User: What shape does this take?
Amino acid sequence: MRNRITLVVIMALLGGSLSGCGEDKAAIRAKRKAAFVAEHGASLKLKAASLKKIRDHARRQGPLSGLAKTGVAQLSFAKAIRGGNASVLQLETLTGQKPKLILSTDRGHWRKELGRFTEGKRTSYSLRDAAAIGHVAVVRTHSYTAPSRKVGSITKFVPGAIGGDVLLYELESGSYKGGTTWKATSGMKVKTGIKQPESGLRSDLMRQAMKAVNAGLKELAAEVKTRK
Assistant: This one.
C-alpha cells in the first residue's frame, strides 16, 4: 500500500512538472511572437494591403506580348527557411472555360496568401516566412484549348495548348516591375486511361504548363530559384 501511495505521489509530481513545462513553452512562444509582431507587425499589415492592390492591378493589366525586364537581381521561390524571398500567385483571367488555374492546390490562392500576413493564430515562425517575402509573381492564363482524343482512334489525340504571362511586383510598395509570357502544348506521347483518356490528356497539359511557368519565372531576375 505504501509503495502504491508513493508511486501515485511521484506520478502526480511528474504530471505537474510536465504540465508546467508545457505552460512555460507556450509562454515562451507567445513572448517570441509578441516580440516579432512588435517589430514587424506594421510591415506585415502594409504587405497585406499591398497584396490587394497587386491583385487589382494584375486584373486591369493587359496581356504581355514578350519579356519586360524587371531589373531585379535575385529571386527565390523556395520556402523561406531555404532562403525564399518571393511568392507565386495565380489570377483567374479566363471565363467560361475550364481548367483555368494551373498551379497546385497549396500555391497560388489569394485568400490563403493574405492570411499569411495576419497575426491571428500564426506562429512566429510562419510570420517570419511571410516577412521574408519581398516580391510576388502573378501567373495569368489568357488562352486555353483543351486536348481531345481523335475521333475514330484510341491511340491518337488532338494536342491542347495553353498560354499566359507572369507579372512581377515588389510586395511592400505594390509596384509593378515587369514580366514575361509563357505557353505550352501537349506532350508528343501521353499515357492515359482507356475509359477517360481526356483526363490524362488534361493532366499532361497542366504539367507542360507548369514547366513553361517555371521557365518564365526564371526570366524575371538575373538569378532565380524555383520550387521543385
Summary: The mean pLDDT is 75. The chain has one domain: 43-225. The beta strands are 72-76, 86-91, 135-145, 148-149, 157-158, 161-170, 176-185, 221-225. Residues 149 and 197 are 7 Å apart (CA to CA).
